[in-house]
Amino acid sequence: ARPRVGYFYSGKSTNQLLGEQIRKLYVKDYKSRPVVVYEETSVYDAICTIFLEDVGSLFVVKKAGYLSGVVSRKDLLKATMGKQDLTSIPVGIVMSRMPNIVTCTLEDTLYHAAKLMMRAQVDSLPVVRPFSEDPAQLEVIGRITKTTITKVFVELGENMTL
Amino acid sequence: ARPRVGYFYSGKSTNQLLGEQIRKLYVKDYKSRPVVVYEETSVYDAICTIFLEDVGSLFVVKKAGYLSGVVSRKDLLKATMGKQDLTSIPVGIVMSRMPNIVTCTLEDTLYHAAKLMMRAQVDSLPVVRPFSEDPAQLEVIGRITKTTITKVFVELGENMTL
C-alpha cells in the first residue's frame, strides 16, 4: 500500500526517530547574545552586569577582543565570601581561564552542546569561532545555556497530535 | 506487508511523536534530592551550603517542616552587594517567599515543569505535596532544575539508529 502523503514507513523505532530529530537541531539556530566583560572589570561591576543583563554567566575577553575566561554566579559568590573590597578585585582573578573553558561552534548540534554542559558541569557555553586577528585565539559570537535547552525541550513537547 | 516486529505504522509525523514522547516523562521519575535550609539560616551559611551541596538554589522551610521560600544564587549575590555582615542576615529576608513560589508535583510531566521554569524565569522548582500536619502547607520532597531537563534532552538525543 502506498503511504499517505507526508508520512512514510521508515523501519525505525520511535526512540531512534526522536534521537535523530533532536540531533538535527543546531547551535546556530538557537544561540543567544553573549554578554562579555574585560579581565580588568571588578567583581562588583561583574555582579551588576549579571543583574542588568539578566544572565547567569559572563564571558571574559582580553582588551584585544578574544576569549580569556568565563565567570559564573558561583565564581562571583565565592569571591564575595572573602573579606576583600569587591570593587578592587578584577574578574580575571576569580574566573575560569582558557584553555580550561568548554566552548561550542555554530555548526555543533544542540545535543552536543548539552552533552558538553553536563560533562563539564557548567550552565553555559560560549559559542566561538577563530579570532580574525589571531586564529590561535577564539572570538565569542554567542551563548548556549541550560535555559536554551529547556526552552527547546518545551517547544518540542508542544508538538501535539492533530 | 506486515511490519517488522517492534515497529508499526502510526500515521503520525515525527514531530508529533516527539512531542508525545516528551509529554510522557514524569517529574516522579526524574526529580533529584532537595537541599533545604531554615529561614533563620544566615546568608553566609546558605552560600556555604550552595557550594557543599553543589546546587543552584536552596528551598527554605519553617522549623515545623513546610515550604516557606526559595533562595537562588542571584538572591544570595544580591545580599552580598550590601555592606552588612552576611553571618547576621537570615535567608528569610533575601529569599522569594510563599505564595510567590512556583512548584510542581510528582504527577506533573517534565514538560509542564519545564514550561513553568521558563514562564517564571527560575532555574529550579521544588517538588511538593500537601504537608501531613497541615494540608494548607506544602512539604518539599524533591527538586527539578534546568539541569534535569538538559540531562533528559541528552538522553533523548542519544537514541541512535542501529
Throw out a few tags for this protein.
4-stranded mixed beta sheet, 162 residues, two-stranded antiparallel sheet, 6 strands, alpha+beta, CBS-domain, homodimer
Task: Walk me through this protein's architecture.
The first copy, chain A, has helices at 14-22, 27-30, 43-53, 73-81, 91-94, 110-120, 146-157; strands spanning 36-38, 57-61, 67-72, 96-97, 124-131, 134-145. Chain A has 162 residues and is an alpha+beta fold. Chain A has one domain: CBS-domain (Roll), CATH 3.10.580. In chain A, the strands form two sheets. A four-stranded mixed β-sheet of chain A has the order 1-2-3-4. Chain A has a two-stranded antiparallel sheet with strand order 5-6. In chain A, helix 3 (43-53) packs antiparallel against helix 4. Chain A starts with 13 loop residues before the first helix and ends in a 5-residue tail after the last helix.
Taking pLDDT < 50 over at least 5 consecutive residues as the criterion, the unreliable ranges of chain A are: none
Order of helices and strands of chain A: HHEHEEHHEHEEH
Mean pLDDT of chain A: 92
How many helices of chain A? 7
The proportion of residues forming helix of chain A, as a percent range, comes to 25-40%
CATH class of chain A: Alpha Beta
**Per CATH, what is the topology of chain A?**
CBS-domain
Please report the total strand number of chain A as a whole number: 6
Which pair of chains forms the biggest interface, and how many residues does each contribute? Answer: A-B, 54 and 54 residues
Question: Biggest β-sheet of chain A: count, sense, barrel?
Answer: 4 strands, mixed
CATH superfamily of chain A: CBS-domain
The computed structural class of chain A is: alpha+beta
CATH architecture annotation name of chain A: Roll
Domain count of chain A: the total is 1
